[in-house]
Amino acid sequence: MGRPDHLRGALSRWTTEFAPGIFVGTVSARVRHELLQAVTDIVGTRRRVPAVRIS
């Protein structure tokens, strides 16, 4: 499953790639919204699984 390089670059600016295709990090609500929107625009809703911990 390939991801466009620009998507990987956008995600890696704000998160760390823990394993291939698995990005983790602590981001603000605004950044989280923007990243999720960018991922959805590129890969659609069926190929993404956001996991968010809110404390």
Structure description:
There is one protein chain. The protein has two helices and two strands. Strands 1-2 form a two-stranded antiparallel sheet. Helix 1 packs antiparallel against helix 2.
Descriptive key words:
about 55 residues, alpha+beta, 2 helices, about 45% helix, globular
**Secondary structure: helix percent:** 40-55%
Biggest sheet: strand arrangement? 1-2
Unreliable stretches (pLDDT < 50, length at least 5) are none
Counted by DSSP, the helix tally is 2
User: Can you give the mean pLDDT?
Assistant: 82
Q: Look at the helices and sheets and give the structural class.
A: alpha+beta
- State Rg: 11 Å
In N-to-C order, the SSE pattern is: HEEH
Shape: globular
Intertermini distance = 32 Å
Strand content: 5-15%
List the domain count as a whole number. Answer: 1
Main sheet? 2 strands, antiparallel
How is the secondary structure organized here?
Layout: H1 5-14, E1 16-19, E2 22-24, H2 29-43
Helix pairs in contact: 1-2
